[in-house]
């Protein structure tokens, strides 16, 4: 049996969704956009190349989501991890 082709864009989307779970602020200017970086390094590098997070290389244990990264992180979280029946799902705006 042949292995399926891995879609790294889907991996990146799932990582952004999981980053939403660990959002925190490191100061008032960051407005809850800092997230832990204990994820696959290759995927972190791809998210950085897509300008969704700050450079993951360094001593800090977290990275900063860009505004676009924060928006996509939240959207991916609700799209991938909420129930769609029984009244659960993305919050109403």
Q: Keyphrases for this structure?
A:
93 residues; mainly alpha; 3 helices
Describe this structure in words.
There is one protein chain. The chain is mainly α. It has a domain at 19-81. Helix content is 41%, strand content 6%. The protein has three helices and two strands. It has helices at 8-21, 41-49, 67-81, and strands spanning 34-36, 62-64. It has a two-stranded antiparallel sheet. α1 crosses α2 (41-49) and α1 (8-21) crosses α3 (67-81). The longest helix is centred in the last third of the chain and has 15 residues, at 67-81. It is globular and about 45 Å long. The N and C termini lie far apart (46 Å). The model has no long low-confidence stretch (mean pLDDT 82).
Q: What's the story with the biggest beta sheet?
A: 2 strands, antiparallel
Poorly predicted parts? none
What sequence of helices (H) and strands (E) makes up the elements? Answer: HEHEH
As laid out across the biggest beta sheet, the strand order is: 1-2
Q: Specify the number of helices.
A: 3
Distance between the termini: 46 Å
Count all strands and give the number.
2
Average of per-residue pLDDT values? 82
What fraction of residues sit in β-strands?
5-15%
Tell me the helix content.
40-55%
> What form results from the Cα inertia axes?
globular
* Class based on secondary structure composition and strand pairing: mainly alpha
- Radius of gyration (Å): 14 Å
């Amino acid at each position: 049996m042949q292995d399926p082709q891995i879609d790294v864009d889907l991996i990146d989307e799932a990582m952004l969704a999981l980053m939403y779970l660990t959002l925190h602020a490191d100061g008032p200017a960051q407005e809850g956009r800092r997230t832990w970086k204990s994820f696959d390094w290759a995927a972190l590098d791809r998210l950085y190349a897509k300008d969704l997070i700050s450079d993951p290389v360094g001593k800090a244990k977290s990275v900063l989501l860009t505004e676009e990264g924060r928006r996509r992180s939240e959207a991916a979280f609700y799209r991938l991890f909420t129930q769609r029946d029984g009244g659960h799902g993305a919050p109403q705006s």
